[in-house]
């Protein structure tokens, strides 16, 4: 959001509005993150007396600050396309909202297609290089 704001927004009024929007989005992310942490802690506390190791522990993983990032954002600014790794939250498909699930599946399919295209391009480059030798 910051990159888009820096690229498109000019003027004091529009900067104020975009800063308020960014602050609102960050507040929502922090609220949802805190809610997730408290729910996960409660599940862990409730499951300890049961001594039941079920699949929910694999689905509801600990949420780290590094996991809270956009779909296209890498771990750091120097990560290249070939070393880009999605956070587990983007591949988790356990949601009750079907529209959200469909949108997420579409975004993941786009990411997969981009990765597949890059792999095919590299494979082609290797074949061409081998032929030139």
Description:
The protein is an all-alpha fold and 133 residues long. It has five helices and no strands. The radius of gyration is 20 Å and the shape is flat. The mean pLDDT is 72.
How much β-strand is present in the residues?
Answer: under 5%
Give a quick account of the main beta sheet: strands, pairing sense, barrel closure.
none
C-alpha geometry:
flat
Structural category is: mainly alpha
Could you estimate the helical fraction of the residues in percent?
55-70%
Rg computed from alpha carbons, rounded to a whole number of angstroms: 20 Å
Distance between the termini: 46 Å
Q: Count of helices?
A: 5
**Oligomer description:** single chain
> What ranges have pLDDT less than 50 throughout 5 or more consecutive residues?
none
Tell me, rounded to a whole number, the average pLDDT. 72
Q: Total strand count, please?
A: 0
Name the helix and strand elements from N-terminus to C-terminus, one letter apiece: HHHHH
